[in-house]
């Protein structure tokens, strides 16, 4: 997960850390930023990247619960940004 100004990017890789094609996958992220919740829809953005507009900026402490669907499967993961 990469957080940039107004955007959240998630890069898909397999268990061997090889890039997976993002087409055919969708995702949602529930963000907790400074005690406030935000929902982000993630869509394919080329290569192995899912991306969505988010009320975030680099350096913020963020907790994200991400759910990805594709290929008939669903995966959830939790990420924490330290804000460094």
Textual characterization of the structure:
The structure is a single chain. This protein has no helices and seven strands. It has one domain (2-81): Sandwich (Immunoglobulin-like), CATH 2.60.40. It is an all-beta fold and 84 residues long. A seven-stranded antiparallel β-sheet has the order 1-2-5-4-3-6-7, with no helix packed on it.
What's the layout of helices and strands?
Blueprint lengths: L1 E3 L2 E5 L13 E9 L2 E9 L4 E5 L8 E9 L2 E9 L3
Antiparallel strand pairs: 1-2, 2-5, 3-4, 3-6, 4-5, 6-7
The percent range for strand residues is over 45%
Shape: globular
Strand order of the largest sheet: 1-2-5-4-3-6-7
Radius of gyration: 12 Å
SSE-based structural type: mainly beta
Rounded mean pLDDT is: 91
- Listing every helix as H and every strand as E from the N terminus to the C terminus, the arrangement reads EEEEEEE
In short:
With 84 residues, the protein is mainly beta. It is built from no helices and 7 strands. It has one domain: Immunoglobulin-like (Sandwich).
List keywords for this structure.
seven-stranded antiparallel beta sheet; single chain; mainly beta; 84 residues; Immunoglobulin-like; globular
């Amino acid at each position: 997960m990469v957080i940039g100004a107004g955007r959240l990017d998630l890069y898909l890789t397999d268990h061997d850390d090889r890039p997976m094609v993002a087409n055919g996958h969708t995702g949602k992220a529930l963000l907790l930023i400074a005690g406030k919740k935000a929902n982000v829809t993630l869509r394919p953005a080329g290569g192995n990247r899912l991306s969505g507009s988010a009320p975030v900026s680099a350096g913020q402490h963020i907790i994200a619960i991400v759910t990805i669907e594709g290929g008939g499967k669903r995966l959830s993961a939790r990420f924490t940004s330290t804000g460094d």
